[in-house]
Write a structure and sequence with these properties.
The complex is a heterodimer. By secondary structure, chain A is an all-alpha fold. Helices cover about 75% and strands about 0% of the residues of chain A. Chain A contains nine helices and no strands. Chain B is an alpha+beta fold. The chains are: A mainly alpha, B alpha+beta. At the A-B interface, α1, α6, α7 and α8 of A face α2, β4 and α6 of B.
């Protein structure tokens, strides 16, 4: 089944990329022109996420399964989920909005990446035909979304420390307040990352007869969890300077990014050898 | 006049002298329950994981030792950390973490991993199981309780031989003696006596043969051929007759494997002839029901069946692990909610009720 007048998936894809690009441009020009472009940023970001949702739907109808298999599908689904989660948080929690200056370029990197990745699809393995996969992937995306919100704040606060950027970002809300919001997001991320590991273990037990086998994705996901746990413990143990905490947040996000995108990129499939 | 000692405004302070042993224990417990040790343990564990990830041959101690250190740290923190006692969610989360570590250790001691091949019509025989991993305390006798018989096997294939759904029918005997057939496969393992039997991609044909010896002894069995269709080009195996003659058996499936269309490998449609050869001779082709005279007896070809390869897994801690993990995450979320998220974000510089726009313009 397809749309009555099928529009190629690439059209929706490019529309989504344009939406995110416009959103990033609006955020940065707002900063440069010293105007509040929040409404434009939110509108374009939401439109972009919607376009990616349509692209996913169009592809789903064509290939018969959700976006779970290869790098293209992983990037597509994450562009949608990260855009959607960030748009919701951006809308509901105004304090996170300065982070858009960092978050949107990250989404643009993913957007550029998806344009050069082969879009061919494979056959969904029978072991992927389970609601556990949805739960595992779903909570994983929520984890990465909250992590992205935190890294946006940590990133912009770090940038603000540079003397050259300080005049431009001088009007940011109080650093301690933004820092507190960023850490709250990391705590949320920790909860959802834990749920992702649990759901993944239950799925792996059913699919491959073991709940944990240290495959590359499992290993890196666990290392990310450990990094997040160590970061949260370090923050309450030592009176870390704020900038060290922000660096730690970015480090956790880099690990998570490698887990979500680096391992599948190197392994061809999300769980190498398991299909 | 001198003031008498101990009078006036001096508040009496009771100095409790602690025994040196007790003091050193308190120092030790304080060190072992410290969050700094937690961070160090986590870093050591991450390092150990990286070492074993990069060098699979590395000793498990790289992971086990940091885990033991973290477990000890957790135990002492649960016992002596005052903050834990004040915050039930935090305490529950860490208790669950410790429980998970202990359950995982118990699981390693009682685990069983193995594999077995079963042909259609064949009953599961624990003595044929190949053991891959067996925990020191694995209750081996439990496997003897598993009773089931292999039924039909169906495997769907998409073009280019991409494997789809696997369905394996098994007949189990219930406690009241009834036979109950069920279909397992892929994410639905057969569960019996605490064991899980998972179908695998390893399956193929088995040749059912009847040997009638010159001494009147009759034996019937199946010779398993290499996995199909992975090895469809070499469906060959060797079998030694009860009389001691080695014969080569080559199976010729009646239908070819289509590469460019959907296809169903169905045990109910199994058909094909075999070539029986001795000493690298040309061999004799047998159809189903035909027989051949061999030194010491007669070999009759009863026809092909299919066999299914199962991976067997046993770990009695699975349900408890899941429960501990879920309770732990819920407790952590509860702790974050009660102690952090539910509290308003306020600082002197910001009125949290006022809308805060993304980028405040600086006039400086």
């Amino acid at each position: 089944m397809a749309f009555a007048f099928p529009i190629p998936e690439a059209v929706w894809l490019w529309s989504g990329v344009l939406g995110y690009t416009g959103s990033a441009v609006a955020a940065w020009t707002g900063l440069r022109m010293r105007r509040n472009h929040d409404a434009i940023v939110l509108a374009l970001l939401s439109a972009g996420a919607l376009m990616f949702a349509v692209a996913i739907t169009e592809r789903w109808l064509q290939v018969g399964h959700g976006p779970f298999l290869n790098m293209f599908e992983i990037l597509l689904s994450n562009l949608f989920s990260l855009g959607l989660i960030y748009a919701l948080v951006f809308w509901r929690i105004p304090l996170v909005r300065p982070g858009a200056l960092v978050v949107l370029p990250v989404l643009l990197i993913l957007s550029a990446w998806i344009l050069v990745v082969p879009s061919r699809s494979g056959l969904l393995p029978p072991t992927y035909d389970t609601v556990l996969l949805w739960v595992h992937v779903g909570v994983g995306k929520v984890f990465l979304g909250f992590c992205l919100v935190a890294v946006g704040l940590a990133g912009i606060l770090l940038v603000k420390q540079l003397a050259v950027c300080r005049p431009m970002l001088g009007g940011l809300p109080d650093e301690a307040l933004l820092d507190a919001v960023a850490w709250r997001m990391m705590m949320l991320a920790f909860v959802f990352h834990s749920l992702m590991l649990i759901a993944g273990a239950v799925w792996a037990q059913d699919a491959w007869g073991r709940y944990w086998d240290w495959d590359p994705l499992e290993t890196w996901a666990f290392l990310t969890w450990l990094a997040l746990a160590a970061t949260l413990h370090a923050r309450i143990t030592w009176k870390l300077p704020l900038w060290v905490g922000w660096l730690l947040i970015i480090l956790v996000f880099v690990l998570a990014f490698l887990t979500f995108f680096g391992v599948p990129f190197l392994s061809v499939a999300p769980h190498k050898g398991m299909i | 006049m001198d003031k008498p000692v101990g009078t006036g405004c001096v508040t009496a302070v009771k100095i409790v002298k602690t025994h040196p042993d007790r003091r050193s224990f308190m120092h030790l417990s304080s060190a072992l329950s410290s969050v700094k040790l937690t961070v160090a343990g986590i870093i050591a564990l991450a390092g150990g994981i990286l070492v074993t990830y990069k060098t699979p041959a590395a000793a498990a101690a790289w992971v086990v030792l940091p885990l033991c250190l973290l477990a000890l740290n957790l135990l002492f923190a649960i016992c002596f950390n005052v903050r834990f006692r004040r915050q039930a969610g935090l305490m529950t989360f860490h208790l669950c973490l410790l429980t998970i570590v202990l359950l995982a250790a118990w699981g390693r001691l009682t685990v069983f991993r193995g594999h077995v091949e079963l042909a259609q019509g064949q009953s599961f025989d624990p003595s044929t199981v190949v053991t891959n991993q067996r925990g020191f305390w694995h209750p081996w006798k439990k496997l003897q309780r598993v009773r089931f018989e292999q039924g039909d096997i169906r495997v769907q294939y998409a073009p280019k031989l991409r494997r789809g759904i696997t369905q394996s029918t098994v007949a189990m005997q219930t406690s009241d003696g009834q036979r109950r057939a069920s279909t397992v496969g892929d994410i639905y393992p057969l569960k019996a006596a605490g064991y899980r039997f998972y179908t695998t991609s390893n399956k193929g044909y088995a040749l059912v043969l009847t040997w009638r010896g010159d001494d009147g002894n009759v034996q019937r069995g199946a010779v398993h051929l290499p996995s199909f269709p992975l090895n469809d080009w070499k469906q060959i195996n060797t079998w030694v007759t009860p009389a001691g003659t080695a014969v080569g058996l080559e199976f010729h499936p009646a239908t070819e494997v289509p590469l460019d269309s959907h296809w169903l490998l169905d045990s109910r449609n199994s058909a094909g002839s075999i070539t029986v050869s001795m000493n690298d001779s040309d061999g004799v082709v047998l159809e189903t029901g035909e027989q051949i005279m061999l030194p010491g007896g007669t070999l009759r070809y009863e026809g092909p069946r299919m066999w299914m390869g199962y991976v067997i897994f046993y770990d009695p801690t699975l349900a408890w692990l899941l429960a501990a993990a879920l309770i732990g995450v819920l407790a952590m979320a509860w702790h974050f909610w009660t102690s952090i998220w539910s509290r308003p974000l306020t600082t002197q510089s910001i009125d949290s009720k006022a809308p805060v726009h993304g980028i405040r313009v600086s006039n400086t």
